Amino acid sequence: MNVFVSEDTMWELITGHTVNYKRVPGLEWHLLLGIASTKSQGILQGDLGRLVGQDKRSVPKRTDSLLKKGYIVKRTTLVRGTKTSKLWLKSFAPPLTQEGDNQKLECEEQMDITPQALTANLDQVPWHTRWTGESMDFHALATTIMAVTKEWHVIRLQDLKAKLGVLGLRWQMKIVSKICRFLNSCGAIQYVAAKLDNKVYKDCIKFNRSLSTKDWSAFLATGKRSAKPARPDPEWQADLSQVNGSRLRECHPWTVDEPLPHKIIECAQYFGVIGVTNPEIYVLTLGPTFNRYVSSLTSCMANSNVQPPELAHLQLISEHIRVGKVASYKFCTPHASQMGMLAEMQSLKFHRARRQ
């Protein structure tokens, strides 16, 4: 006899509410079914995509959506040297260690984190297979690091790695170092130097405090970290060094109500024969953030076919100049360009006359 569960019952058990494909689209629902089928064992994100037959590039985005909606728990793990995520249905997820909680954790093997077991010697802990096997249990590893550090109070990193059973294991040692850096950044441990038998060891860590629930959440969070602020572009920084700020004060700044091409032509007309450069236009208009856009705009405006004959006086002309070792362009209007050429010709005639 075959027994089947109705769709309404499945939705009630897995999501806690009735059928709602607007809240949980069909593809996300299939992922939920795959995660729920593994119960307390959980499933790797890559295996989940193969299980339900979905594109591996789309699965992370959908699992992030399920995580935000509160249906699943997603934690970082390491499999064959590759960082990935392990997923559980929220009701089957293993609990996090709370601050000050020294209870034994039961999963695959017993974790005995009592003082007697951790400080008797430096032999590797019996449950080291949780992070030295095919996959890595980040939660168990961090819990053991904190427990060992707390009982020893101060311990060398080499001794800690020996206790964890990761000495000689390249990937595992990298992860231990990375976890220690995180614990140091949140104030749980501190890098110190310690003296033993008249010898100073500088590769030691000291226990400061237990991890809070907020620390655990930050440690086990998956996905991209917050973006770092973009570095300043050295290209426009070099350009701005050429700007003559004293003469730019004579020209009134650009306002958002004024078309940008009109302002560029106005600047070129105002400075006349001297002309205006791209860095000076940045300062007078949009700022250096839009340097590429302004450079592209001035290049287009300096094209000889842009203006019709009746607007030839508004045509922008570019001239190649060199300031020290830096080559750039200055922009001026046709009248200013002609005046500059006449002045240059008169100067040449004057010098020739003096030589004769």
Automatic annotation (TrEMBL):
UniProt GO BP: 5S class rRNA transcription by RNA polymerase III; transcription initiation at RNA polymerase III promoter
Domain B-block binding subunit of TFIIIC, residue spans: 26-93
GO terms for cellular component: nucleus; transcription factor TFIIIC complex
Subcellular location per the Swiss-Prot or TrEMBL entry: Nucleus
Main location: nucleus
Gene Ontology MF, one: DNA binding
Keywords: DNA-binding, Nucleus, Phosphoprotein, Transcription
Pfam families reported for this sequence: B-block_TFIIIC
Segments passing through the bilayer: none
PANTHER family the record matches: GENERAL TRANSCRIPTION FACTOR 3C POLYPEPTIDE 1
Name of the protein in its database record: B-block binding subunit of TFIIIC domain-containing protein
